[in-house]
Amino acid sequence: MWLRQTSAPLELPHMNDQPTVPSQPTPSPFPPPKKSSGCLKAFLWVAGIVLFLFIIVAILIWQSVSWLKNAPEPKIATYPALKLAPGEEEDVNRIIASIDQAKQRDALCEEYITPTVFNGLMEKILDGERAKGKLDVPLFLRAGLVDSDKLELKITQPMKDEKAPDGAALFVNAEVVFRLEIVDGELRQANIDKLVLRGRDAPFLSRVVVNHLVAGIKAASQQDKNNTKENKLIAIKLLKRDGDRIHIILDGKTMREQDQQQEQNQKNEKKPPQPEKPGTF
Q1: Is residue 253 in a domain?
Q2: Burial 199-215 (b: 16+ CB within 10 A, else e)
Q3: Contacting residues for 126 by C-beta, under 8 A, at least 6 apart
Q4: End-to-end CA distance of the chain, in Å?
Q5: Domain for residue 219, yes or no?
Q6: Among 239, 221, 248, 228, which residue's Cα sits nearest to residue 108?
């Protein structure tokens, strides 16, 4: 009896059949291009910034050098005549006498004075120094009050070792606005806000350099505040602005010692050099 086939024939897997693998792209014989455009742009950007900063610094240096080089001039700044009222003249004479008494008694001299009295006092002191034959003292010195806590100082200083091409004398006319405080011979505060030479404001870099130098002087005064020979401010117990007046305290003993040291130095300078003794053989 024949049987009827009711199911599909079984298919055996072929041993040679393998899974399909995606095709790989054919490698190019040429190397891929380098992505250097981004690095080049960054380098050019940095170089541009450096060049810009270099130009700015060069301009600042040139302005500062030109400003400082042209500071000496053959003329003296114009100052209004110092007019003291009778009471102010009496204050000046009284303060000078008080300073002399403080030197004799080794005492302190304390004063609250107006800028006008301060200017009159400084004028008499400078005249006395010039009468002693000192040629390097300022020709003029004027103080004033600016804002609520600043001092203004105008000064004309002769140049000792520099002359004009025609041999004429040169002078430095300066104007400074600053905060100042000296305590026990120590420069506590000296911040310069404005500096003018020959009618020209100091460039930015010059103000930075000047304030850096002032900071060095401030640090030196702190280190040498007890050194009577090195610290020129040691006789000043207090100097600062106090409202609309200038508060000053001077140490008479220290001023007397400084005067004695100065006289001794002048005597040593006047002594002729001693001839060298011949050596013995």
Answers
A1: yes
A2: eeebbebbbeebbeeee
A3: 137, 138, 139, 141
A4: 158
A5: yes
A6: 248
Contacts of residue 147, Cβ cutoff 8 Å, sequence gap at least 6:
none
Is residue 59 in some structural domain?
no
**Domain interval for residue 96:** 86-264
Q: Quote the pLDDT of residue 245.
A: 94
Task: Tell me how far apart the alpha carbons of residues 193 and 165 are, in angstroms, rounded to a whole number.
Answer: 33
Mean pLDDT by 10 residues, the chain (281 residues): 47 52 55 57 61 57 65 87 92 95 94 94 89 83 90 89 84 90 89 86 79 82 71 88 94 89 76 58 42
Q: What pLDDT was estimated at residue 69?
A: 74
Q: Single out the residue of 180, 160, 189 nearest to residue 118, CA to CA.
A: 180
Packing angle, helices 37-69 and 204-223, rounded to 10:
70
Residue 34: CB partners within 8 Å, gap ≥ 6?
Answer: none
**Any domain includes 156:** yes
Count CB-CB contacts under 10 A for residue 197.
19
Structurally, the chain folds into a number of domains equal to: 1
Residue 37: what pLDDT? 59
Q: CA 93, CA 266: separation in Å to the nearest integer? A: 27
Cα–Cα nearest to 174, from 196, 200, 203, 158:
196
Contact 226, 234 (CB under 8 A): yes
